Here is the input.
Amino acid sequence: MGAVSPGTAALLTFLARTIDARTAVEIGTGAGVSSLALLDGMPDGTLTSIDTEPEHQSAARRVLTDAGIPARRARLIAGAALQVLPKLSDAAYDLVLVDADPLEAVEYVEQSLRLLRPGGLLVISHALSAGRVADAGNEDDDTVIMRETLAAVADSSDLSPVLLPVGDGVLVARRA
Ligand SMILES: C[S@@+](CC[C@H](N)C(=O)[O-])C[C@H]1O[C@@H](n2cnc3c(N)ncnc32)[C@H](O)[C@@H]1O
Here is the structure.
């Protein structure tokens, strides 16, 4: 999986702006495409973004700097998401974007429930995996875990989800 699509980036900006986000967590910095989209939608906000690969974050930092984003608005943390996320504060974030290791997506949702304030948004990119999630014959590990993740979100009484056909699928869920 690469960066989010242009349509998904536009949706991230729209969502962040719509809820007047001030604090967001991004799980999977990559080269900064979604970081920039989120920051575009939260002009007064701060993004905390996690990635295992420092060189990805260096590339992201260059993208953000080139776009005129001050360093203080993007806290880039190099590390494994499941080690970093438990250190972030409870109910302190307006939006969490899940876009890192697909095999850990269920755990990312569990962590997001703790991190999001009431009314905050969970966003999962690549949620339809270019049609593989809907293909009952596809039993790839990534695809099976994404189905389990979507089911966990749908079953949660704390989340109100909608699955959007943007990019290769984006799940947005509001935290009760
Ligand atoms: C699909 S890319 C992210 C793309 C980025 N969100 C964008 O749209 O520009 C996934 C990223 O997750 C990172 N990643 C993979 N496993 C991870 C983990 N366990 N913890 C944190 N980051 C991880 C990879 O290094 C990669 O940069």
Notes: DSSP finds six helices and seven strands in the chain.
